[in-house]
Amino acid sequence: MAQNAQRPKIEYVIFDMDGLLIDSERVYTEVTNELLAPHGKEMTWDIKAGLMGKPEREAAAHLLSFFPDLPPYFTIDYYLDIRRSMQDERWPSVRPLAGAIRLVQHLHAHKVPIALATSSLRRNFELKSSHLGALFDCFEGRVVCADDGLIERGRGKPHPDIFLVAAERFLKLDVGQGEVQEGHVSEKQKEVRAKGLVFEDAIPGMQAGKRAGMSVVWVPDANLLSVGGETTAVDEQPDLTLQSLEDFVPEEWGLPPYDPKS
Q1: Which of 48, 74, 89, 204 could cross-link 157 (Cys pair, CB 3.0–4.6 Å)?
Q2: Is 242:218 a contact under the CB 8 Å cutoff?
Q3: Is 23 among the residues known to form the active site?
Q4: Given the DSSP bridges, would you call strands 12-15 and 196-200 parallel, antiparallel or unpaired?
Q5: 18, 161, 201, 221: which one is catalytic?
Q6: What is the mean pLDDT of the chain?
Q7: Which of 3.65.10.10, 1.10.150.240, 3.40.50.1220, 1.10.260.40 is the CATH number of 24-93?
Q8: Alpha-carbon dihedral of residues 118, 237, 57, 124, nearest 10 degrees?
Q9: pLDDT greater at residue 255 or residue 3
């Protein structure tokens, strides 16, 4: 991780949501393990690491592949339906993670263009965010969800599509389509992409940001690192790794510094 590298001057910022801005990953873990427990199963963090950042159905299929001896009724649809009802009861209790409100409000106050790109379904986003106006009102509707129908071919992370849609549709930037290495991305579009900063907590999301040609600040859960959830197994590497959003220093990236009193 390039902790001391020369930083590019950032002109816009795109955030992931689950596990980065809010503690919703806790709910996913609790509910899933409550469903698995009667069958003597558990979603450990080494399993969970492979689910993070994936679209809902793809993540569910990956999870259940670890438990082939579950009863026949325990299908992907069964799991998602029961999990959804249990989660819905808990989403209003999720809280912002450390540093999230301060950073998002700071960028918004200084008119830095920001957007949110989440693998959550739109209905889930609404349930998770409706009680957290101090955080999510700052995005002013600039939110891309997995099921909005805006992502090319419905490709989730680690493909960069969701970040590119956020930049183009909501921030009105000409970033083109596809990975930055692909030949049809123009030099001008690459320059625009290089001015963007992505905040992510999951490895697939970090990969997606790098494949978009943007800088990435990776804020992984300590539990992910404890099970070997490092980035050594993937080609892409974050530009900066932090333990918390509280540790982010905006002026290192050419962004307005925090007010010392804030």
Answers
A1: 204
A2: yes
A3: no
A4: parallel
A5: 18
A6: 92
A7: 1.10.150.240
A8: -20
A9: 255
For the chain, which residues make up each domain, given as ranges? 12-23+95-253, 24-93
* Cβ-contact 127, 92 below 8 angstroms: yes
Q: What does the pLDDT read at residue 2?
A: 43
Token couple for 177: 């389509």
- CA pseudo-torsion sign 145, 228, 222, 249: negative
Task: Please state which CATH class domain 12-23+95-253 belongs to.
Answer: alpha beta
Q: For residue range 134-185, what is the model confidence (pLDDT) as tens digits?
A: 999 999 999 999 889 887 666 788 999 999 999 999 999 999 999 988 778 9
Q: Tell me how far CA of residue 124 lies from CA of 4, 106, 132, 152, in angstroms.
A: 37, 26, 14, 21
Rg (CA), the chain: 18
69 is catalytic: no
